[in-house]
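pasting for the record
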Amino acid sequence: MRAATSKHIQDETSSGLEFAVLGSLEVRNGSEPVSVNGALQRRVLVMLLLEAGRVVPVSRLVAAAWNEEPPDSAEHQVRKTVAKLRSRIPHGPDIIVTDGPGYRAVVDTDQLDLLRHQKLLRQARESLDAGEPERAAAQLREALALWRGPVLSGSGGRVVDAASTALEEQRLSAAEQLYDLCIDAGEAAEITGELRVLVDEHPLRETLRSRLMLALYHSGQQAAALDEFARARGHLADELGIDPGTELTGLHERILRQDPSLTRPERSASRVPHQVTEAPYALPFDVPDFSGRSSELKWVCDTARCAQAGAPTVLALDGMGGGGKTALAIRAAHELAEQYPDGSLFIDLHGFTPGQTPLSAFHAQGDLLAAAGIPSDEIPTVPAGRAARWQSYMRGRRMLLVLDNAAASEQVRALIPASCDSLVLITSRPRLTGLDGAEWLSVGALPEQDSHQILRNTLGAERVEKEPDAARELLRLCGGLPLAVRIAAARLANRPHWTVQRLVERLRDHDRRLDELTSEGRGVAGALLLSYQSMPDDQRTAFRLLGHHPGRYLDAEEAAALLDTDVLTAEDVLEELVDVRLLEAREPGVYALHDLVRSFVQRVAQGQQAPEDGQAVRRLLDHYLNTAERACDTLFPGRRRFSDRDEGGRAREEFDHKDKALQWLDQHRDSLLAAVDAAYHGGLLWHAARLPRELGFHSSIRGYDASANAALEKGVSASRQLGDQPLTRLNLMNLAMGKWRLGQLRDAVARLEEAVALSRRMEDVHSEAECRARLGQACNSMGELERALHLCQEANERAQELGFTRLDGSSLSTLSLIQVRLGRFEEAAQSGERAVAIFDSIQEVQLSVDALSNLSQATEGLGRFKEALAWADAALERCQRMSMPSVLPLVLARRADVLVRMGELEEAADSAGHALAKATRSTDDIHRATVHLSVGRVRYAQGDLDTAKAQQLLAHEIACRMELRYDEACALWGLARTAEAQGHPQTARRHRSAADNLFSLMKVPETAR
């Protein structure tokens, strides 16, 4: 009954349901693909199909699915997987049947490529036994055409890979038998191209190499045949440390002496003179899971279709190794092939193939002619004749040529047809600028969506969707490089017990990432190494020195420092690296390293260190320090020069405008942060102690204090190790202000008090005055108003005595705010006006924003609301001009407070809302409570008491956490007003009493509450 049922189902499905395992797994029902998701389902199905017709025990399916580490539930999962396959595949229960201890796949020869392959091999043997070599050759060729690659594309795991290896050996033996028959039939020239491809795939297989040598010899290419022996000897020595075997060595000797036993076979007398009766079609197999590159593919196809008639169209794709150029070219060629009725040819020029010398134009012409079906006796053996024969063959034909993996323009120029309507697709790593008339497209990183699709195709949607965040992180670490994504996906497919997160954690190790992205000798590091090795010595040295750059982005000035040359020469070097696709050009003078290229060049720099490397790093750090100092001197006029010491920095012009100085610091921030780390861990303590100061100043505008503080911590440590007290004091003070902006007030005060003590020990009155002013600023935030007032007054007096203009202004500005809080509005206005005048006199914009804001508060306290709004607007204009994200929320809140007092509630609400939005995006916490208080005042004035209360509670929570006593009291005062308006008198009294206590402790009068 079972046999009858199976036969019935097979008859019903044989015309539609087909399986393919010789390569990636494919299941089709008619013209529709049947998706088989997940590595577990694919491995189980492939294992059953490899043993089609035979029972496969569950234990063997477990071994195939999990290698050596199956989970305890493995057998249950296998049975569950079989059930899923049965439901997914049409007629699944009759295709996969339960039989005894396991399962059996019931398919016939027409349904499975493996069975057809094996049947054709048997028929070929029978034809040979019957004395029919031509028929046997045709059957062998048909069998070999079914092969698309290793089973499951090499990601099947230990058991499947073992079966795949056996099938691969079977395929190679059949190929060798076919080539023997072709050579015997006098068709040596026709097979040299495909033989060369197979030898490149298996360079250590001597039996294949011997067939190629014979084919070349019988094609009149004795020198090329001898060259193949040299290649084989080199491979065997490099990989195995052995010499070629006796058979290959003997063949080499016979070719050398032109042994009569190698006489070329005569063609059969009955053989019809050669005529090319059908167009050659020699494109490689198109990757079935090709994903993305839609815009690039459209460009190739549209450009080819719109090409001018009467001339060849040359389209060239360039990009770094592993970028998917070949896959894109092959996909485009398959889509365009129908437009070229005279055929399609493909050749790998071995421009960047491990262990291979790039093919010369002479050898490439011979291989292309042979692939086109030209007999060997019609292929000239001298360069001029062969070039003429190639152009003669192409004349008048409309063909598509794919010239893959080119190294240089000279390699492909002689292969381009002189005059015809053909299309030539070229792929290369460097841009072959010597090709006139070519149209170019650089193939960059894959978009995340396209990389994600590769991952889904390989792992199955279910596994990817189970860990969406880890999948996104994996793709980020692969940098959009198709080779990296495919290797990562293959590793996960080969390890179904791994989570995506596990591989992500391994890839996060920067030192191991390139090793993790290597599989079966193929990897990103290998691809990049070929580009590196192909460069001239001076270019390799330059690339290695650039490996000491601490960041991903670099400009020509940084390169000039590393390379010890001028900027124009450095830019030329960088452009050469762009040409070989090891750098990306971002904008004029700015370049980027792909993350994986960066990992590679850092590995090269660490592994090939030379005496000049240390000097290069010092030059770069000198460049950073001197340029950052000049930028900050421009942005912060009147600041003290730390010292006149110049450690050999490169001379450059001063910044002529604040915008340029700020732009330089913005562009180099990440590199400067990384440079501090590199200097500190590399023992370059002087640079590690000096650079953080500039980062602290820049952060006061841009608000990245968490990372700037980390650099300043290293600056403090480095300066202490150097025993340099002035540097230690400087870094302590700057670190304290970074912590103040983050609301870490106790830490800030502790470091400032240490800095004050250091200044006294050094008898440095300038430094002591500066530190006391900063300490007054911190005490003001903590509500210690009397102490803050005393510190700032003392600092201001000392600044005036010393002629320290910048400190004179900054201490007056802080003093103005303290006086506002103490209700001394007239004094506050005078202090604020003097501070603004001082800052304007030295063109200091950043600090003037705070001074203007404080002056606005003072004039508001005096009841001069229009004047207060004008000062607030002036502060806002300067803040926006400098783009100061840390201060902008405070200035907007200041405007809102004045507008409320003026009764302009709609404009006040707009300003307060803008302030709140900016505050939530700012990393600086010191002003956040003030912003919430301002929003609360606006909402209270508008009668939105619930929102007002919510904002006041937020302000109170922040102020308590940071010990901002004045803000805490203001929040309680606001909560009291709101509770009273809501009809909660008891709550209002409690809040007001708490606020009064705090204000009294700070000696804040009622007029200032």
